[in-house]
Design goal:
- By secondary structure, the protein is an alpha/beta fold.
- 36% of the residues lie in helices and 13% in strands.
- It is built from 13 helices and 14 strands.
- Strands 3-9-8-7-6-4-5 form a 7-stranded mixed sheet.
- A hairpin with a 6-residue loop joins β8 and β9.
- The longest helix is centred in the last third of the chain and has 22 residues.
- The protein is globular, with a radius of gyration of 22 Å.
- The protein binds pyridoxal-5'-phosphate.
- The site of pyridoxal-5'-phosphate (PLP) has 14 residues, from α5.
Length: 460
């Protein structure tokens, strides 16, 4: 399907190898290069295989933290580039709120709105996931205050006070988020992020409520009662937080990604929707990591069967740009309330246009469901064969994970896997997460499972 895609992983050096380490030394003089796994040969990488500068060919089921929908150098993207389909976006980067090219309007209409979640009438584009969340929170505050003022315009006192950070009422406004949640690192979204101290230490934060996330235990049928109780406890805490008043929004990931691939049931999310509606609080579904097809649907929340859609849905990563979809009522009445210079990126949006065409043409969402089922079955097999190492295989589509007995073993398994050609990622304290491209096929799944098992059994 992807011409010239390698047939399997090939490792020639330690990973990272000497060429990567030399680049890290150079790079590290100017930027923090300590987090870099390898330096990638962007031209040679193909499909599901990342080729690094040492010539190692790694099967990549992490894909730049879940950001590469069609794998590397997909022929349709390269052809579009060579055929000049993106030329209109190549010569300058516009301020899209000032002088957008007509081609961009086509993309909003035919790409972004084509895959909009049901019930969403508007889309705001920005660049990253944290900006998506940041602006969705602002839209929720704007709608909340508009309602509180009964639709009346702000008073001159409000306008003067806001410049002094002393606007009546706003200091009390709150956003509810969940333990273990991750919503970004800028100062607004960071107050809703609860996954790890490293993200939050030393930064001033809003004093917003945090509630427990159910974090279903797996296998689900063996833990049905515990999971039901955890969901009930969480919903009680949500309701108490909403009853306290002044809550403009509740934000939740369909599956907590960074926090450790923690799940909850569709019933739980339906209850959240009901509670937020009852209390007049915006229901923000953060699909930055789950969105864009990885769960076998464009949007993970489509699996919940909501009677009423979410109020706002944030996205980034596989979508190539950041942004949020929202319902009409969250579209501000005045211009410039939600605004920045770039308001997205037309070149990346044009690339998304090709991605959407290929996903539809090649039936990639179905394929993700099939590959995901195979991956999950394989992870169950791995757990059965190595219960001392692995537990709790779980996933929706290819958005999958498995737990390892402890954090240090997890890190050693990931390191050992990379040495034999598998690039996977960690999440939470001791999970391994799979975030492959949508072009993952059976043979990649099998290779991934084989490499992971070999890595685990190779540990001293
Ligand atoms: C659910 C979720 N929200 C927000 C973000 C922040 O996105 P970004 O790193 O693009 O700012 C992430 C990033 O991992 C995420 O997983």
């Amino acid at each position: 399907m992807i011409p010239d895609e390698p047939t399997h992983a090939v490792v020639r050096t330690a990973v990272p190898g000497p060429a990567s380490e030399a680049l890290r030394a150079r790079h590290g003089r100017y930027q923090d290069a300590r987090t870099v796994h390898v330096y990638q040969d962007a031209r040679k990488s193909r499909g599901n295989y990342l080729v690094d500068v040492d010539g190692n060919v790694l099967l990549d089921v992490y894909t730049h933290i879940a950001c590469v929908p069609l794998g590397y150098n997909h022929p349709d993207l390269l052809k579009s580039w060579h055929d000049g389909r993106f030329d209109w976006a190549a010569g300058f980067r516009p301020a899209l709120g000032v002088a957008p090219p007509p081609e961009y309007v086509d993309l909003v209409e035919h790409t972004l709105m084509r895959i909009a979640p049901a019930g969403m009438s508007h889309v705001v584009t920005v660049t990253t996931g944290t900006e998506a969340v940041e602006n969705a929170l602002k839209a929720a505050f704007i709608a909340f205050m508009r309602r509180r003022r009964g639709g009346a315009p702000p008073t001159p006192e409000d306008l003067a006070a806001c410049l002094l950070n002393r606007q009546a009422g706003t200091a009390a406004l709150k956003v509810v988020s969940f333990e273990g949640g991750f919503h970004g690192r800028t100062l607004g979204s960071l107050s809703a992020t609860r996954s790890k101290p490293v993200h939050k230490l030393d930064f001033p934060a809003f004093d917003w409520p945090v509630v427990p996330f159910p974090a279903s235990r797996f296998p689900l049928d063996a833990h049905a009662d515990t999971n039901r109780e955890a969901e009930a406890r969480s919903l009680e805490a949500v309701e108490a937080a909403l009853r306290a008043g002044d809550v403009a929004a509740l934000i939740v990931e369909p599956i907590q990604g960074e926090g450790g691939d923690r799940h909850a049931s569709a019933d739980f999310f339906r209850a959240l929707r009901r509670l937020t509606s009852e209390h007049g609080c915006a229901f923000i579904v953060d699909e930055v990591q789950t969105g864009g097809g990885a769960t076998g649907r464009w949007w993970a929340h489509e699996a919940w069967g909501l009677a009423e859609p979410p109020d706002l849905v944030t996205f980034s990563k596989k979508m190539q740009i950041g942004g949020y979809y929202c319902r009409e009522v969250f579209h501000p009445a005045e211009p410039y309330r939600i605004f920045n210079t770039f308001l997205g990126d037309p070149l990346r949006t044009a690339q998304l246009g090709v991605v959407v065409e290929v996903v539809e043409r090649d039936g990639l969402l179905d394929r993700v469901q099939r590959s995901g089922a195979r991956l999950l079955a394989g992870l169950h097999g791995l757990t059965a064969r190595h219960p001392e190492v692995f537990s709790a295989p779980r996933g929706v589509g290819t958005f999958a994970a498995i737990d390892v007995c402890d954090a240090s073993t997890r890190d050693r398994v990931l390191f050992a896997a990379r040495q034999i050609g598998l690039e996977a990622g960690g999440s939470g304290d001791r999970s391994i997460r799979f975030r492959p491209a949508l072009v993952l096929a059976d043979r990649h799944v099998d290779e991934c499972l084989d490499l992971l098992e070999r890595a685990a059994v190779s540990l001293p």
